[in-house]
Known about the structure:
With 223 residues, the chain is α+β, with helices and mostly antiparallel strands. The chain has a domain at 2-137 and 190-207. The chain is built from 5 helices and 14 strands. Strands 2, 3, 4, 7, 8, 9, 10, 11, 12 and 14 form a 10-stranded mixed beta sheet that branches. The protein has a two-stranded antiparallel sheet with strand order 1-6.
Amino acid sequence: MRNRAGSQLAALGRAGVKRWLGGGAALGLLLLTLALSGCGPFGGSDGVTASGTKSLASLSWCDRPLITFQDDSTTAQKQLSNWSDVKDQLGFTPYLPESMPEGTCLALAGGSIHNPIYGGQFSITYVLPKIGPVSFSEAPLHQGMSSKTQCIQSAQDSKTMICVGAISNTSITIASRQSEADIQSMFGTLKSNVAWVPGGSTPSSTPTTAPTTAPAATATPTK
Length: 223
């Protein structure tokens, strides 16, 4: 079940990455996850027991490797698939957990650099056993933005929580079917510059035909 869910997410990611990044949506890959979160394969148990944790770099891809970053410094909007080529050009420090439960796989990662509106953006989605997709979307913390972690409920799926917080100069959004308390706790585990690219992978950055419509970003505040 986990592999099927991850494969579907990665397949749709390959189809839609260029459209969402080209549109300048800072939460593009995050919204992809929210659009899929109501689908059966992502919400149910896959029978995998997480008996331990593994470092992010030791995890496997759910499907074939997919890393896509768009360079918005020119009209050509070059697609980049090497994390080492973009990590120092994001304009902020990325934060991730140092490990995930055993049985977790990486679905897709990407973002943009040198965007004239919001600078850089980094999104990454994992599929966790018994939970489904957990997405991180990060961008520079702009002046006036609150650093306090706040959570809202996705209007597309009542079981999905979206929590927004900040660490230092980085705005961080986490979307997951975990409880608000669990997501809040996850913020406390985030570390800077965690190695996350699975060893030995050769990522692709070439999407196929984009879908006709992008998912809508609607959410309902929790009470």
